[in-house]
Amino acid sequence: MSPLRSTDVETYVRTVRALLAGDTAEWEGKPIRMIQPGGFVADRPIDVMFLIGAEGPKGTAVAKAVGDGTFAVATPSAAIPGRAAALKMGTVLQP
């Protein structure tokens, strides 16, 4: 899949946060809500940390608006408060 547009990421995160809070959200112009029977999911609100993939100015703006930090393939931006995670690859040569 190609990457999501920054505005779509922001809308998605806001929607999921609302659902996890137990609120009714809007998706594609219609109201949605999580309505599982008792005992099937954790009680609301559910607090989840969202790290936003932000390697450019648009992603950085979304991370500042709705994120709890950033995720990057290179070095996460220090300009965004919160936690940061970076994808690193390598080979273990010895235990």
Descriptive report:
The structure is a single chain. The chain is an alpha/beta fold and 95 residues long. It is 26% helix and 18% strand. It is built from two helices and five strands. The protein has a three-stranded parallel β-sheet, covered by helices on one side. A two-stranded antiparallel ribbon has the order 1-2. Strand 3 (51-53), helix 2 and strand 4 (69-72) form a beta-alpha-beta unit. The longest helix has 15 residues, at 6-20. The radius of gyration is 17 Å and the shape is globular. The model has no long low-confidence stretch (mean pLDDT 85).
The number of E-state strands comes to 5
**Which bin fits the share of residues in helices?**
25-40%
Q: Taking all residues together, what is the mean pLDDT?
A: 85
Gyration radius, to the nearest Å?
17 Å
Specify the overall morphology. globular
**Structural class assignment:** alpha/beta
Ranges where pLDDT stays below 50 over 5 or more residues in a row are: none
**Relative strand content:** 15-25%
Count of alpha/pi helices = 2
Short description:
With 95 residues, this protein is an alpha/beta fold.
Give the helix/strand layout:
Layout: H1 6-20, E1 25-27, E2 30-32, E3 51-53, H2 57-66, E4 69-72, E5 83-86
Helix pairs in contact: 1-2
Task: Quickly list its features.
single chain; 95 residues; alpha/beta; two-stranded antiparallel ribbon; 2 helices; 26% helix; globular
